Amino acid sequence: MSGEAVPGGPVLETAPPYAAPDEAAVRVTAAAAASIPDLDRLITGCRACPRLVAWREEAAAVKRFAYRNETYWGLPVPGFGPADAGVLIVGLAPAAHGGNRTGRMFTGDRSGDVLFAALHRTGYASQAISERIGDGLTLTGLRITAPVHCAPPANKPTTQELRTCAGYLDRELELLAPTVRVAITLGAIGWAALLRVLGDAGWTIPRPRPVFRHAAELVLPHPDGRRLTVLGCYHVSQQNTFTGRLTPAMLDEVLVRSRELAMNTEA
Ligand code: SF4
Q1: H-type helices in 44-157, by residue range?
Q2: More reliable by pLDDT, 12 or 109
Q3: Confidence class of residue 3 from pLDDT cuts 50, 70 and 90?
Q4: I need a surface site. Which of 7, 80, 117, 244 has the fewest CB within 10 A?
Q5: CA 237 – ligand 1 centroid, Å
């Protein structure tokens, strides 16, 4: 175990590399995590998806010209945010020169700029700009994760890669169970991935499975009495934010709604 250095300071503990051979091995590894910080650390050592390991490491070695003097993170990017969050944002995957460079979800690219500005406006983030791990930014009441923790080529993980990484999201939801009441999915892939993981974990998912749409609200019951509201939100990709498909006001509305639901939804 070591603190991994990126520009801004060594503040995130990393695990030794391990080559989990398949999704079952990932589940065993994830199940061993006793806490959210433990899970975050374990994820950083994962090498289960050969294509993604090669891509993230190539991006970290070749680098984008603008970042040529930086040391890239180049590892799986764990979730970010407190272990007692009431709201969980589920994105898609880190970007090769964003999260894969900075070591934090949604950090280092335009998508993250849009998201963190909104999180700050709505009271979830301590500052409007997320630069890299070690910049002092904290989240309150909200955590950010993804169904795939390594940067995929063209931002498109394969179905198998989604399946392989699902064990980590499954365990993250288990560890957050005492507090999490709302999940915001950014985009259709995050929506589908989350519903699949929730279904496997015993949550009652309507059939046919509800399709993703912006501002969708889906209340899911669990046999143990818990309820989780899944909110749909267009992804904060440049494709959506530059075209106005997702405006800052629309994003703020979803975040404000998540806070209302997290405060009002009983366990
Ligand atoms: S995507 Fe997930 S399962 Fe695959 S190598 Fe990265 S952390 Fe491991």
Answers
A1: 50-62, 99-102, 110-121
A2: 109
A3: very low
A4: 244
A5: 22
Report the nearest atom of ligand 1 relative to the CA of 23: 3
Q: Which residues line ligand 1 (CB under 6 A)?
A: 26, 43, 46-49, 52-53, 76, 148-150, 161, 164-165
Query: Is the pLDDT confidence value at 239 over 80?
Result: yes
Residue with CA nearest ligand 1 atom 4: 49
Q: Report CA(114)–ligand 1 centroid distance (Å).
A: 26
In contact, 265 and 182? CB cutoff 8 Å:
yes
Surface-to-core class of residue 27, CB atoms within 10 Å of its CB (0-12 exposed, 13-18 middle, 19+ buried): middle
Kindly list the structural domains of the chain, giving each domain's residue range(s) and its CATH number in brackets, ordered by start: 2-266 (3.40.470.10)
**For the chain, what is the mean pLDDT?**
93
What pLDDT is recorded for position 151? Answer: 97
Please, which residues have CB within 8 angstroms of residue 177's CB and are 6 or more apart in sequence? 226
Q: Is the pLDDT of residue 173 over 80?
A: yes
Q: CA–CA separation, 247 vs 40, rounded Å?
A: 31
The predicted pLDDT at position 195 comes to: 97
Q: Is the pTM of this model over 0.85?
A: yes
